[in-house]
């Protein structure tokens, strides 16, 4: 066999190995590798972090507690008997009873619903406002950006809790629905500025990319470019900020309810329970410690989850 025939036979044999997907071949045509993406790299980084799994488990646990509290306690939080005032743990009341003879643990479990509802809806409406303002300011620039940026600066300079106290003082109704809606409205109107700045920065970066210029050359209008090309790039950083903000909104609602400005009884909220426990702390500290622990762990879980997602999506931090 000539040298030419030997080389040709070797090439044919190597090609057959590549097509069959045998290991050790440099080019496995039959099994192409999965393309790398930011989301895939972020997930690979997230699943290696214990802090991500711990915070995720806590968030899922609190969400399940708010959605189906009956899974965590069989006692009725409204079943209060004065004869059990500050009684020791018994039956399903694993943390005893408060000054009204109510199950401390049951009220802490049912308090998750109102607190999480206010935090989640506040974050949702905050995200909608931030996306609209940030995308308009970042995409159009010029006087639109100048005006909206000044609006962001003005709102950012207003102390959130102080303004919330002033505005919620004007709400005269004691209806649970009205007060929950009022707290959500105030937190959303005052808390969107940070997310809007993040969205604006992402939009400014995305609008200079080549794919946006290519879309313009193909005749795409501003609306289509913003919806199809800009919005997907602005969502990821906005979700990270809103995840952290959700924990802050839960803490803000608890603070307002603790001060008697936010939610009010008969609504069960961690802030209300903490205030009631504070008043009777000398008789028993458990009604103060239990809802405080639930609140602290929930806020910490959302903040840690947001931090983990932010670090995973930021290439500079890898």
From TrEMBL:
Annotated compartments: Cell membrane
InterPro entries assigned: BP-dependent_transpt_permease, MetI-like, MetI-like_sf, OppC_N
Gene3D superfamilies: MetI-like
CDD domains per the UniProt record, alphabetical: TM_PBP2 (cd06261)
Domain of life according to the entry: Bacteria
Keyword Methyltransferase among record annotations: no
Ranges where the ABC transmembrane type-1 domain occurs: 112-306
Annotated region described as Disordered, given as residue ranges: 1-37
Keyword Transmembrane: yes
Alphabetical UniProt keywords: Cell membrane, Membrane, Transmembrane, Transmembrane helix, Transport
Bilayer topology annotation: Multi-pass membrane protein
Transmembrane domains' residue ranges: 50-72, 120-144, 151-168, 180-199, 234-261, 288-309
Family that this chain belongs to: Belongs to the binding-protein-dependent transport system permease family.
Protein name: ABC transporter permease
Species, as recorded: Micromonospora lutea
């Amino acid at each position: 066999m000539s040298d030419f025939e030997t080389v040709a036979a070797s090439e044919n044999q190597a090609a057959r190995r590549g097509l069959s997907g045998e290991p050790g071949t440099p080019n496995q045509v039959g099994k192409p590798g999965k393309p790398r993406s930011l989301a895939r790299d972020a997930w690979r980084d997230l699943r290696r972090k214990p802090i991500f799994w711990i915070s995720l488990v806590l968030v899922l646990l609190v969400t399940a507690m708010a959605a189906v509290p009956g899974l965590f306690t069989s006692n009725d939080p409204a079943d209060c008997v004065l004869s059990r005032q500050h009684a020791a743990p018994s039956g399903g009341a694993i943390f005893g009873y408060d000054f009204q003879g109510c199950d401390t643990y049951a009220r802490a479990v049912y308090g998750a619903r109102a607190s999480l509802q206010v935090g989640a809806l506040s974050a949702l409406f905050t995200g909608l406002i931030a996306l609209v303002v940030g995308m308009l300011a970042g995409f159009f620039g010029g006087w639109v950006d100048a005006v909206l940026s000044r609006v962001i600066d003005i709102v950012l300079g207003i102390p959130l809790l102080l303004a919330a106290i002033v505005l919620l003082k004007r709400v005269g109704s004691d209806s649970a629905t009205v007060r929950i809606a009022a707290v959500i409205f105030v937190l959303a109107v005052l808390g969107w500025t940070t997310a809007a700045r993040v969205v604006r920065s992402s939009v400014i970066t995305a609008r200079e990319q080549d794919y946006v210029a290519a879309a313009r050359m193909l005749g795409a209008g501003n609306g289509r470019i913003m919806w199809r090309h800009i919005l997907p790039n602005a969502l990821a950083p906005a979700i990270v900020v809103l995840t952290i903000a959700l924990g802050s909104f839960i803490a803000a609602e608890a603070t307002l309810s603790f001060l008697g400005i936010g939610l009010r009884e008969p609504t069960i909220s961690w802030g209300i329970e903490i205030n009631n426990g504070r008043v009777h702390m000398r008789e028993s500290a458990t009604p103060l410690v239990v809802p405080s622990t639930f609140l602290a762990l929930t806020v910490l879980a959302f903040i840690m989850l947001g931090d983990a997602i932010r670090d995973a999506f930021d290439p500079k931090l890898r």
